[in-house]
Amino acid sequence: MTVVKVGINGFGTIGKRVATAVDAQEDMEVIGVTKTRPSFESEIARAKGFDLYVPGDRIPLFDEAEVPVKGTVEDLCEKADIIVDCTPGNVGQMYKDMYSKAGVKAIFQGGEDHSLAGTSFNSTANYQESWGAQFSRVVSCNTTGLLRTVFPLDRQFGVEKAYVTLVRRGADPGDSKGGPINALEPSVKLPTHHGPDVQSIMPWLNINTMAIKASTTIMHMHTVTLELKNEVTTEEAIEVIRNSPRVRVVNSSSGIKSTAEIMELASDLGRDRSDMYEIVVWEDGIKSTGNMLYYYQAVHQESDVVPENVDCIRSMCKLCEADESTRLTNIALGIPYKR
Ligand code: NAD
After folding, report:
1. Which residues contact 192 (CB under 8 A, 6 or more apart)?
2. Does ligand 1 have an atom closer than 6 angstroms to the CB of 44?
3. Residue 295 and residue 156 share a domain
4. Do 35 and 129 belong to one domain?
5. What does the pLDDT read at residue 234?
6. Tens digit of pLDDT for each residue in 264-311?
7. CA nearest to 169, candidates 125, 211, 115
8. Whose CB among 22, 187, 213, 226 lies 3.0–4.6 Å from 293's, allowing a Cys bridge?
9. Same domain, yes or no: 18 and 163
10. Three-state secondary-structure class, residue 52
11. Are residues 183 and 294 in the same domain?
12. pLDDT value at position 236?
């Protein structure tokens, strides 16, 4: 079996999750992760058995802290078949030349522009478009969330127009900076970037998005209104959403009334870091009248893109077809698989 050598550049919120997820697959291995300074996260990386690579000018910092490093970021690029770039937004673009020079494939994240990679990725919607590519970009958490439900509904019923309001978490739980503490902050530049980002994968979709930043850290929530090309019943829409990959349908009568209970559910499921990889849709919050469809969905910003990164590696390294990759990734991460 081909085992793909994966390097993770940036071991933060997304990078450490992608590293764990890659490590759980049989057809890929983590050959190293990068850090820019010694920290509790560099200790965690080493404790998990991941070799540390650092920017050349930072080696003295690690030497001083007596933290062993295996080499520089350039060295990691030379050894890897593919780099998953999980550096902060707009930092990835600074590394593109290094990846090109080393001839290594690279996956960027949603904080970079679509144009940096030229191809954007979502497992459900366009797995094949990254097949064999040198560069691709896994779209952001919110865009991934929208594609997981809107793409299957569009394929089944046809979407004439999509109107989405995103209530966004102010900061990640591990952050002690940023975000409104006791306020709601509208994104006044309309449409927000989320609609155009969905169009990087579904260019035909007529979508408008608005967003409000809220003083919560645990999840985003979307209200989605779809004008469909045909009339559908609520039951027909529920059926499509229920059968969509990496979408979990819950009912508020089961006690899941908010994002708080979703996080509790993820913890009870024994997920790594209590992550909820699936997009969660409330069944009793799905409503259709004529050709208008309304629903709510919750997005765990720290983890929904993680299985997509694993699938993107398989597509770019031409390991297997979309269904098989989704199946393998889901089994390894404990996500229910729907054919
Ligand atoms: P983060 O700040 O948590 O982690 C970034 C990591 O990169 C940190 O470990 C940091 O030390 C490291 N880093 C910083 N500068 C670097 C450099 N020059 N070279 C190498 N490493 C460097 O960021 P994150 O939240 O994990 O975001 C990473 C990417 O994922 C961004 O593009 C972001 O938009 C995207 N994303 C984030 C979320 C989220 O909710 N956090 C969700 C989906 C996508």
Report:
1. 166, 209, 210, 211
2. no
3. yes
4. yes
5. 98
6. 999 999 999 999 999 999 999 999 999 999 999 999 999 999 999 999
7. 211
8. 226
9. no
10. strand
11. yes
12. 98
Determine how many CB atoms are found less than 10 A away from the CB of residue 103.
Answer: 9
Share of the chain above pLDDT 90, in %: 97
Kindly state whether residues 288 and 315 are assigned to the same domain: no
The C-alpha atoms of residue 99 and residue 104 are separated, in whole angstroms, by 5
Q: How far is the CA of 95 from the centre of ligand 1 (A)?
A: 13
Cβ count near 107 (within 10 Å): 29
* Residues 109-130, mean pLDDT to the nearest whole number: 98
Nearest CA to 191 among 217, 177, 211? 211
- Do residue 62 and residue 120 come from a single domain? yes
Residue 276 is part of a domain; what is its CATH number? 3.30.360.10
Verify whether ligand 1 is closer than 6 Å to residue 34 (CB atom). Answer: yes
157: Cα separation from own chain's centroid: 26
Same-domain pairing of 63 and 49: yes
Q: Which of 9, 14, 94, 107 has the most ligand 1 atoms within 8 A of CB, as the residue to mutate?
A: 14
Identified catalytic residue from 77, 86, 141, 317: 141
Residues 274 and 151 reside in one and the same domain? yes
Q: pTM of whole model > 0.90? A: yes
